[in-house]
């Protein structure tokens, strides 16, 4: 009996709308090679454009309004409370509706990761749903998961069905070095401190982003085939880093630990049968 939950057949990438230098074509080729040609990776439009482009013009107007209301409702308003209001401010909905029609989209609000995942699932055709299809939504927006008894925490990856990777979260979710917080609290400009930290953190338009994001794609793959996306080994690409320097150290090695490399090889052997 297989130890794996599924055999992937197709992977769908839905690119983000940011200006970050993510090369989705290169990443799709890399993943196909990593999985030894056992899957086909398709790069679609961003998830909202992909969905809205499949419906009629009449339906599109109604759906844009519905999606704008849904996005406004699932915003994180209080980092310590998970609440979704019935009554929405007209300005919030108008912002979301305008942002849906923009390219690139503005970044600023934080969204509940679980609710965002559920919203994304509604946009995926039923015939393309199932554990053998991995849908990976890349978003420029920030998402956060709520931990009961604690608070919301920003995420880079939120794994479920579909899985989410926040390209803005790569810079904002893992904590920066402690000196960043000490210096900015002392009044130094954030932009100056970030610049002086140099390669110790992921910067805006950082050319390393393509390499860094590979580990989060692998986390989504491992979540779907095993149910567990993370590793406790600090130099494994599946390491769940909480600090920028940890993330860069794990991802720039460009490899899995021996245990997860062996697991991947066992999966690929089964997938080729």
Please explain how this structure is put together.
The chain is 42% helix and 12% strand. It has a 5-stranded mixed beta sheet with strand order 2-1-4-8-7, sandwiched between helices. It has helices at 24-34, 47-52, 57-73, 90-100, 113-122, 169-172, 178-185, 190-197, 209-226, 244-252, 258-271; strands at residues 10-14, 40-43, 110-112, 133-139, 142-146, 152-155, 157-158, 163-166. It is globular. It is α/β, with parallel strands linked by helices and 273 residues long. It has a single domain (10-271), classed as Collagenase (Catalytic Domain). A hairpin with a 4-residue loop joins strand 7 and strand 8.
Features:
alpha/beta; single chain; 5-stranded mixed sheet; about 10% strand; 11 helices; about 40% helix; about 270 residues; Collagenase (Catalytic Domain)
What is the CATH level 1 assignment? Alpha Beta
Give the N-to-C terminal Cα separation.
14 Å
Q: Rg, please?
A: 19 Å
Structural class: alpha/beta
Here the CATH topology equals Collagenase (Catalytic Domain)
Q: Strand fraction band?
A: 5-15%
Task: Based on the coordinates given, report the CATH architecture.
Answer: 3-Layer(aba) Sandwich
Number of domains in the coordinates?
Answer: 1
Described by the principal axes of the CA atoms, the overall outline is globular
Contiguous helical run count: 11
* SSE order: EHEHHHEHEEEEEHHHHHH
Enumerate the strands of the largest sheet in spatial order, edge to edge or round the barrel.
Answer: 2-1-4-8-7
Poorly predicted runs are none
The CATH superfamily title: Collagenase (Catalytic Domain)
Main beta-sheet strand count, sense and barrel state: 5 strands, mixed
> Could you estimate the helical fraction of the residues in percent?
40-55%
Average per-residue pLDDT, rounded, comes to: 95
Q: What is the strand tally?
A: 8
